[in-house]
Design brief:
heterodimer, A: 326 residues, alpha+beta, six-stranded antiparallel sheet, two-stranded antiparallel ribbon, 8 strands, 46% helix, B: mainly alpha, 3 helices, elongated
């Protein structure tokens, strides 16, 4: 019996020790280096909150770094070298604890791309850089999505959008523009401007045809299908496609209204919103039950880090955007 | 009619905790598609998960104390094993979660 007691005490202390050791331990993958010479890019794998990679192709060299210290503030930098001379650097930073932070990114992209355009960098160089990013971004996502903070990885897209906005401005001889992609607002993709997303016309038509055979089609989709029948280009830009459902002016008006602060539907609720911290559950409308245990749970699950946060958990930053869309 | 002794209460709570946490982890990985079911789970889950975690830790310490003091060792050994299994299980899934999702 005494042996059993000793074993139990020892094993209990061991269990507590292991849990404490794990809680205090750092990420072991720190400073691990991954290189892939075949594909022309080198990636330095720091901890999950940092990303650094280099793309080399001919005389071009692109160095990208991105990191977050608190998982709320994210900063990144893309430097482009040509023949070992630094051509330009783009910086991008965003914070996810601000209300409607997703809606704030497109104006920042326009501002940054206007600055880049003013540097008078030749269109051919920007086009090459854009192609390099587009060609390699998939590899970076593939290798980092499982191990890195998603928002750290997603920072690449802001730089890509800045360069693409300048290229569009060059091509159309207009000011830089960018309309936030609705799928970004719904957390289905990383940041993209509507103007840089294209559908293949034939594929889109085929999908719509299939859909219309099995489902009833609304008037907007009917108009779109009629338009596609006479449309002879290989691709259709997303904003042109989307304008059949909501005009760009109306979409921009919606974004502006959201940023100006439309009152929430649950402003008259005595216990606040069903999605606010402290309310048990996460739903639209008025909160039905608010208490300190649910507040504690919500605070722990701000980033939905674990099973503990229950299925359907929405991180705070996304939760705000999802509500905004409704 | 059997009276609900402290041992029985702890045993039932320990069994419920283990089953509840296994179910919770399972639905975290395979969430139900019905939005109403998810809302119901969130509503109930937020309320009872933290208290149940505290109860599990209490049961673990209490059963260990009983065993060390040699009070109904065989009975409390079952409670101890159940709660140890719950804690180890939650430790493992949390470790796996933090290393794969973040």
């Amino acid at each position: 019996m005494k042996n059993l007691k000793k074993i139990l005490v020892a094993s209990s202390l061991l269990l507590v020790g292991v849990l404490i050791a794990y809680a205090c331990s750092k990420d072991e993958t720190e400073n691990q280096k991954i290189e892939n010479s075949d594909s022309g890019y080198h990636m330095r794998s720091l901890d999950s909150n940092s990303l650094s990679f280099e793309i080399s192709d001919g005389l071009y060299k692109l160095i990208f770094t991105s990191n977050t210290k608190d998982k709320i503030s994210f900063s990144s930098e893309l430097t482009v070298f040509y023949d070992n001379d630094s051509l330009f650097t783009t910086h991008y930073a965003f914070k996810t604890d601000e209300e409607h932070w997703k809606l704030m990114q497109a104006p920042v992209i326009i501002e940054k791309s206007t600055i880049l355009k003013s540097k008078k960098i030749p269109e051919s160089i920007l086009s090459d850089v854009s192609t390099l990013l587009t060609d390699n971004i998939g590899h970076v996502f593939y290798e980092t999505m499982e191990s890195k903070n998603r928002l750290v990885v997603s920072s690449i897209n802001y730089h890509k959008s800045i360069i693409n906005s300048v290229l569009r401005a060059y091509a159309t001889d207009t000011d830089c523009g960018c309309t936030v992609h609705p799928e970004f607002l719904l957390d289905k993709t990383f940041f993209n401007c509507q103007e840089e997303h294209f559908y293949e016309t034939k594929l889109l038509m085929a999908i719509l045809d299939d859909y219309s055979k099995e489902n009833s089609v609304d008037a907007s989709t009917n108009k779109l299908m009629d338009f596609l029948k006479t449309y002879n280009k290989e691709t259709i830009r997303f904003d042109d496609y989307y304008s059949f459902y909501i005009s760009k002016n109306d979409f921009n008006l919606f974004v502006t209204n959201m940023l100006m602060g439309r009152p929430k539907d649950c402003r008259t609720c005595s216990l606040g919103c069903g999605s606010s911290h402290g309310c048990c559950g996460n739903y639209f409308g008025c909160c039905l039950n608010r208490n300190v245990i649910c507040y504690l749970h919500d605070k722990i699950c701000t980033h939905c880090a674990s099973w503990f946060c229950l299925p359907g958990c929405k991180p705070d930053n996304q939760r705000t955007s999802l509500i905004s869309i409704k | 009619m059997k009276t609900l002794t402290l041992y029985r209460l702890l045993l039932y709570v320990s069994l419920f905790s283990l089953a509840y946490f296994i179910y919770l982890v399972y639905i975290s990985y395979y969430p139900p598609t019905d939005g109403y079911v998810i809302h119901a789970i969130q509503f109930i889950g937020e309320l009872i998960t933290i208290p149940l975690l505290l109860v599990t830790v209490f049961n673990f310490i209490f059963s260990l104390y009983k065993i060390i003091k040699e009070i109904e060792v065989k009975k409390y050994l079952i409670v101890f094993i159940l709660n140890t299994a719950t804690i180890v299980f939650l430790g493992v899934v949390t470790y796996a979660d933090l290393n794969h999702r973040l």
